[in-house]
Amino acid sequence: MSPQSHVCRWGTALFVALVPTLGFADSTYKVTATRTQDVITIDGKGDEPAWQTAPEIGGWYLTRINYGKPAPDDTKVRILYDKDNLYFLFHCLDSKPERITGYTVQNEGFLHQEDNITIILDTYLDHRNAYYFWTNPLGVRTDGRIVDDGEAFSTNWRGEWETKSTIVADGWISEVRIPFANFQFEKKDDITFGMLLDREQSRNQEWSNWTPDGMNSAKVSRYPHLAGLKDINPRSIFSITPYVATTVALKYNDDRGAFRPNVGADARIDPAPWVSLKLTANPDFSDAEADQGFLLLDTEQPLLPERRQFFLESEHLFIAPINIFTSRRIALRPHDRVWGGLQLTGKVGGMNFAMMDVQHRDFTGKDAGGRDIYENVNSGVLRLQQDIGKRSMISLVALNRSGRGGIFGDSDFQTLGVDGNFHLFEEFFIQAQALRSWSPLGNVDADAYHVGLHRFDTLSEFWLQFEDIGKNYANPLGWTPVVDKQGYNSHLFLNPFPKWRFLPRLDVTWDTLWRRNHEHQRTRWRQRLNVQPYLHHDFALYIDGVYDDNEGFKNRVGTFGFTLFPHDWQNYTLTAIGGRFLGGELRGLNGAVNFKVGPHIVARFSGFYTRNFGVPTNSDLFGKSGDGYSFSGYAQLRYHFSPDLYARLTLQKGDVYELADYNSVKGTFLDAMVGWHYRQWSDIFLVYTDQPFAGSQERRILSKISFNY
User: Fold this and answer.
1) Span 500-665 CATH architecture
2) How far apart are CA 687 and CA 704, in angstroms?
3) Residue ranges per structural domain of the chain
4) What is the reported pLDDT for 26?
5) Domain 33-230 - what CATH class?
6) Nearest 5°: phi and psi at 315?
7) How high is the pLDDT of residue 709?
8) Are strands 34-35 and 30-32 parallel, antiparallel or unpaired?
9) How far is CA 593 from the centre of its chain?
10) Fold identical between 33-230 and 500-665?
């Protein structure tokens, strides 16, 4: 047995044997919610008399640059509730209101580095997991889950809530309504949530929150409490969401016909406050809901965000170092089919559980006559996660995938494993995982191990991870792109704020990866250093160096450039690249312009040009770039009538080799979409797309309407 195997296996065994001995006290901050019978209109004004009956929360503390000090620009918050909703009124004071910024107009957008506020609710009061609701001065809604006391985030969860914001003379005001129907909890006389209120100011890149000392906003275990919620209604016991979808193929190269209608439904039943049963019948692929840069017809490699409601309820339970379950691996391609499925999920005491069974049909290839061959598949998943102490946990997972038919015949895959997190100190924890698979590939060398040490806070992050994955380990329901490996990877991120006039901020990232196969042959050695010195809050240099000895190619690539206005939807970037890549010499230029025009229009343009020399015949670049050049371009224009109603036009042309910030696809794409979220959990989409599919160009019109009861 190799030393690497000893480290992973004994580390895993040590972790399982550990019992947490450290606890962390709850926050001393607490507020009692004020009940109202009045109607609260979410208009960003907060002028209803009922708001004055709620106590004002103030006294926020900084959490980033001047950590732990009182915020110079305080935030005042009032909280109301009725039987169905929780209401928040934020008054974000700002001594320079003319510099308040809001760029993002798209729901589910990334809001950092513009003014924003966040409401985070631990509705189970388990001090581990929470829902976050994030908005900016334009009233955009972004939400998700914080998992395992900030160790991970799940961004696919989508809640239903309402917000409006207004810029005023002394700052900006935001009103928020969060229905209790988003959550499942026991209906009782008096309920308490964990709650954190958070704010970011763009002009000084400072963060603040409502805690005694400005602690890290992801630390669910230390959240203040929102108490006094009486006689409130959790989500309804039953709901159903049917949908109707159509595809009209204007140009196609298969035998599935020009017109393809589709119907299906998702349903949910909550027989008790601690358990939920979810059912699905013929769910569609939900690629329109993902709202990525463009709708992808061929998803052999890209993994889309999960938007199928059936799979989202327990998604956060499957976050683990070695990916054990990715629901997008079930019916991976749009022409695969989920016939139906059921899922039982919930929490009893300190035990989270999820049990899922899905029947689906997957495309496996074509026979000698060119006919499509499918296999009928049953996929089952069991996940049990037991809380230990206040912040640690241990989990069990069991997976089974049984396929019948298909071009390769019948197949059965099983995986069994255990994993967990153990918090030693406030910001330091250990992760460990052990997995075993049984498959047609063989049952010898079919195990996988992981041990990781992690530390993170607001301004820094470090991890050191060891992995040993056998060459016959196989889990088609998870995502393990590389097997037959032993190795380690490390990551260090530092985000100091020197407060110098010409260097207010510095971002430094250093990544190392080393691995070998089980014959002790080194297969990869990668080092990357990235430095971004901010010469001004709105201007940063970009310096990046990579050495990557990978599969015989010794890549050495350097990048230098700058970013002006480093925001997601408002920036200008220009970088030059040079070095050796895939066996040849490389020179290139990459430019990107993202900007917002008025309150409704945003645009994104990117271009990437490379010149290659001396490319060998065994390189992926040979025959496409060779001793020549390649070019790719990307453009997107969005018009948002409101955060819930938008139109999008996207164009991409060219080949991309993971050097530029594009979707990792090749060819010419033209994509137009209109999306409307017209009521809770209900949407309408209309899409026109012209793109490569199965080796040739296709043109299609797709539509979908869903309605939640």
Assistant:
1) Beta Barrel (2.40)
2) 9
3) 33-230, 500-665
4) 55
5) mainly beta
6) -55, -40
7) 85
8) unpaired
9) 24
10) no
